[in-house]
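Re: that chain you flagged

S.,

Sorry for the slow reply, it's been a week of failed gels. I finally had a moment to sit down with the sequence you sent. For the record, here it is as I used it:
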Amino acid sequence: MTSIILIVLSWFTVPAWASNDVVYSHPALFTSLLIIVAVVSCGLLALFFHHLEFVSFRKLHATLTYMPIAVAVVRKKDGHLLYGNKPCRELMGVRKLHDRYLYPDELNVQMVRDFIRPLAKLHGFNDIVEEFKLANGKTLKFSFSGQSVRCNWQSYWMLFIYKEKVHQDPHEKLQQDQRLFQQVLNSLSELVYYQNKSGALIGTNKAFDRFWRGRVEEGVVEHDIELPMISGANHSWTTAPDGSSRLLETNRNLLIGDKGEAIGTLSISHDVTDWHEMQEVLKNEIEKREVTELALAQRNILLDTILNASQDPIGLYNEYGVYIGCNEPFARSLGYTQESLIGKLAKDVLLPEQWEISQQTDLQVIKTGESIKMDDCVMLEDGTLVWYEVLKSPYQDPTDGTMGVLVMARDVTERKMAEQQLADAIMELQELSFIDSLTKVANRRSFDEQLRKMWHGHIRDQNPLTLILCDIDYFKAFNDNYGHQQGDIALREVADVLRSVVRRETDAVARYGGEEFAFLLPNTDLSGGEAVARKVHQRLAEKGLSHRYSKVDTKLTVSLGVATVTPMPNQDYGELVEMADVSLYKAKAMGRNGTMSMSDSDDF
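Prediction finished late last night. Pasting the structure tokens below so you have them in one place:
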């Protein structure tokens, strides 16, 4: 750059061969030469300094890009955002559009201008805390340090941004984490205890202490951590504090340290007595049914051996449909006497629809020569329903060789009633096994079974499957202040609201656990799931269940996590549950009483 200036000056300098008299004899020419030299020199100097400033900003940009803290370059006069590095974009939500940087929608330029206006005359500042009140009612709070810089011939602030520092004693934080961990354990209804490598008991929860008070050694299983862990659950019978026998299912897992070494075991036990008893009842009912069927089979064999003395209906008609023989029970079942029925046509005795069905089976028996067994129901004159097991067999009259049908009917009303009672009992047991006893919606076991079936069906059809996890906000505070009885009532009310939201028979609502519920919405995309979530908030608000101990509202509210996946053959439905759980966690983190959603197109 200096050489360019010297060349220009030398070009405009008077040549050595020119005499001084020529130059000084034309003062206007001399003055013009000086002005031209000055203008060109100033322009070249301006370009030189601009080049230096441009090179300086490029170096600054490269430095800021790799800085681990959030940095923004903001114009002093109007708050315009020139640059924001990656930590700044993550912290404040700044967006990059091509070569431009934009504030998030809820944080406008006016807010930033109001913040930096009082600092205009400073060259720098440190640790100024500023709160930005957003349009949605939320507040962003940051701490700023700034340094004045120049770029593009203008003054800018280079702002270093970080969240307000909260100093906490490490020992106090450790104690706080330990208290929180213990509170989480105490909130579980399962019996939880954990042991160190030597097998010594190092911690329990309240449920464990209440169940095993005075008998801790019974509840702790001796173990050798060097031996491999046995997979599966361990079942054992024991005595509850009230003296009743209870069946406990215990799962044990290794506790792993920071370096991957085994440091102890964690054991979780829960009471499965009721489930076991229901299984036993179902088993007994099935055994009773088998005994009943065996008895009925034996009875049928006995009846076949005494056809002529049988009290069961037996009838005979030829291929033309004329009754040629029967016993009294058979005639009585049709509303006739034995004498009055002989010689009549079947089509005149039976109702038209009965005759049509009977004729079809009769032709099949005569044509194939094989017997057909069926069930039939007859209403007697007194209105009593009688069930018969009907056996139709072919026969040939030895006198004239005509074909006919032999009908033998056995009264199986008792068996039908037993089968119906057994079916009702089985249905009731199945309902108890898959329905939550408190809220009367599907329980966790039913939810897992339905999710498994829907998952495989959606893999085959390649349709979207949506899961919504629902958690009642601050329900522990509700129980602590209103009592568990009112808490149970509130759970039933919420379950009724959730049931009222879904309309399709294929949609399912289940109690996922505690105060959590779940929706399974087959063939539903993410927008459909979000629509159901909006209905849940609306219906619950209309219900208006009081919750004066909530931190988000005076009424009982819920947080919802929506997840949608179009399952692939190599996927597991646990991914859908995890996505919904992450969405629910985000909804809670955003202040609760809201919905967050996620689909398989998101960066999960």
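What I noticed first: The longest helix spans residues 27-65.

Talk soon,
D.
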